[in-house]
Amino acid sequence: DPKNIEVLGVDGQTIYQEPPAHDKISQLTATQKNDYVGRWLNGPYPAGYQIGDTSVIAGLTNITTVTNFRQGDHVWGGSAAPLMQYLDFILFRDRESPTLTLNIGGIANAHLAHKDRRKMVACDTGPGNILSDNGAKHLLNQPWDTDGATAANGMVNDKMMADLKNHPYFQRAIPRSLWPRNDFSMKYCEELFARHPNTTTEDIMATLCAFTAEAVAISLSDNVPKEALDEVGYMYASGGGVKNKQIMRYIQEKLPSNITLLLSSEIGIPPEFKEALKFSTLAFSTINKIANNIPAASHASQYTILGKVSYAPWKAQGVQPM
Questions:
Q1: Which of 94, 173, 181, 304 makes a 20 to 30 Å CA pair with 316?
Q2: Is residue 244 part of a domain?
Q3: How far is 58 from 280, CA to CA, in rounded Å?
Q4: Is residue 134 located within the same domain as residue 235?
């Protein structure tokens, strides 16, 4: 019965993403910062577009629906990506020491959860599954490398690793956000493979997995204060990428020795469902008018309530018989 469901949170499908250029935004005058038309036309202005209309979803499901979470953070200069940090704040705010989480989807993002929201950190780390999946499609004619089995039979190619680490993504100001269709697309992978023609398929797959872990390590070093990292005991991983054993192995090898990598299932959250829990939590906070962005993490200039609401038709008042 839809009336037993309080709210439905839907991120929608992102078809465009323009991450904020924090270095350029910081150089704007007060007048320029308020010139939204000029910033939209000439940059820098963070923007994204997700398809999935809240009114349509609410109408078809008869459930109050919240969508378009990201724009509310964008308008205050925030990256609005990743969005996992509010859920992490709810999950770990009672812990005395900070906790790291990592979500590995097509891209990967890391979060430092802290009981003090002002000390939280969130960033896209770089590729998650996308490089390994692109490699599998191009080299193995498979949608993915199951369990990282092909990568397990290879060795990291140092020249290809250096090439990957030279990606311009790592030159962006922190906290970095990426757009995988541009940053780590199949075109990028094909050009990468062509630059290393004598590298075996197994070594390519191993290097792609190792680079995914390297990107996590680089991002943690760039974004999280060392004193905070020293206090962390655990990193909880979620998302489809946790099924790739080689990616997980390389990540553990790259983490500081005081941090143990665990699946989110260790805290009762199946890795494949944490994204869904994220948006249901955001949606619940939205309809209850609770600030659900984390300015310290996204670099937004203030707290706000993310999301647009369309109410379930059955809640309509003042109706007359048809």
A1: 304
A2: yes
A3: 14
A4: yes
CATH number reported for the structural domain that contains residue 157 in this entry: 3.30.420.40
Show the domain range for 183: 86-273
Q: How far is CA 191 from CA 26, 70, 159, 302, in A?
A: 34, 32, 14, 41
Rounded to two decimals, the pTM is 0.89
Whether 320 is in a domain gets the answer: no
Please choose, from the candidates 78, 119, 90, 102, the residue with its C-alpha nearest in 3D space to the C-alpha of residue 111. Answer: 102
- Structural domains of the chain, count: 2
CA proximity to 101, closest of 82, 127, 79? 82
What is the token pair recorded at 141? 């004619």
Q: How far apart are CA 126 and CA 191, in angstroms?
A: 18
Same domain, 57 and 149: no
Q: Which residues pair with 18 in a beta bridge?
A: 47
Helix (H) or strand (E) holding 234, with range, is: strand 234-238
283 in the same domain as 249: no
SS3 at position 17: strand
The tokens for 240 are: 């489809």
Q: What are phi and psi of 65, to 5 degrees?
A: -125, 140
189 plus 281 within the same structural domain? no
Query: What are the 10-residue block averages of pLDDT along the chain, 322 residues in total?
Result: 96 78 73 76 74 94 96 87 92 96 95 95 94 98 97 98 95 77 89 98 99 97 95 97 98 97 98 96 98 93 96 94 86
Categorise residue 240: left if φ over 0, alpha if ψ from -120 to 50, beta otherwise: alpha
Is 322 within a domain?
Answer: no
Phi, psi of 77 (to 5 degrees): 85, 10
